[in-house]
Structure to design on (238 residues):
């Protein structure tokens, strides 16, 4: 069953809670050390029921998030104001919030100019920027996937059944048993070599679903420098 995300707000900030269905009999809410929030629910539970439980336990979620945040000194909250640094394909660009009628995002050598209309509302600037990231990712990830398939000698018709781009909280990519490649939208902030590393890793799962020796052999052969790329990815987006 695909993941379902419960979206709500906590102290004015967006709170996403991943909903995972399992055979268990009761609802269980968890805040993980990476500060993601997850609810495990019996199969068939209505999302509204889960949402009610999430809202009822907001205070507890807040306390847990605060506790884990002390171990995350690098995760500075973004404010979406001019001057702040944002990443695009590994480049650190300075955000310029512009007011005007022409909504959209422009990239120059050093700047990322975002116009969300006649407003500088952080929420709207954030939405505009992420909409743009999403559009960039849709094209680029598809193109990189095709390139990576060539490297792995995967014929066009044997590639992933489809490509889904979404914001995962704690992983960069996934390959489902029926061949759906999932890529984290956040990868659009990383250099292309890191994006390729994630795609290659997931494509290797088409041959070997698990991380066994044969999986690692294949990865090593097609991308001998994958460790370097992985480290770079983790450092850059921390
Ligand atoms: Zn894997």
């Amino acid at each position: 069953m695909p993941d379902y995300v419960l979206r709500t707000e906590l102290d004015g900030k967006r709170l996403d809670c991943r909903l995972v269905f399992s055979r268990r009999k009761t609802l269980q809410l968890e805040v993980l050390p990476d500060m993601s929030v997850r609810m495990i629910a019996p199969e068939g539970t209505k999302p509204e029921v889960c949402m009610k439980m999430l809202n009822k336990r907001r205070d507890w979620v807040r306390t847990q998030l605060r506790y884990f945040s002390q171990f995350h000194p690098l995760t500075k909250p973004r404010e979406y104001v001019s001057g702040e640094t944002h990443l695009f394909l590994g480049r650190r660009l300075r955000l310029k919030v512009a007011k005007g009628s022409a909504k959209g995002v422009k990239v120059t050598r050093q700047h990322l100019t975002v116009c969300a209309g006649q407003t500088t509302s952080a929420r709207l600037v954030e939405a505009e920027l992420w909409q743009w990231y999403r559009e960039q990712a849709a094209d680029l990830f598809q193109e990189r996937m095709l390139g990576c398939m060539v490297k792995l000698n995967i014929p066009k018709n044997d590639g992933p059944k489809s490509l889904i781009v979404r914001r995962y909280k704690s992983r960069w990519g996934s390959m489902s048993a029926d061949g759906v490649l999932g890529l984290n939208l956040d990868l659009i902030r990383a250099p292309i070599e890191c994006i390729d590393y994630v795609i290659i890793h997931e494509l290797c799962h088409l041959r070997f679903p698990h991380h066994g020796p044969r999986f690692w052999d294949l990865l090593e052969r097609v991308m001998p420098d994958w460790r370097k790329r992985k480290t770079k990815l983790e450092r850059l987006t921390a």
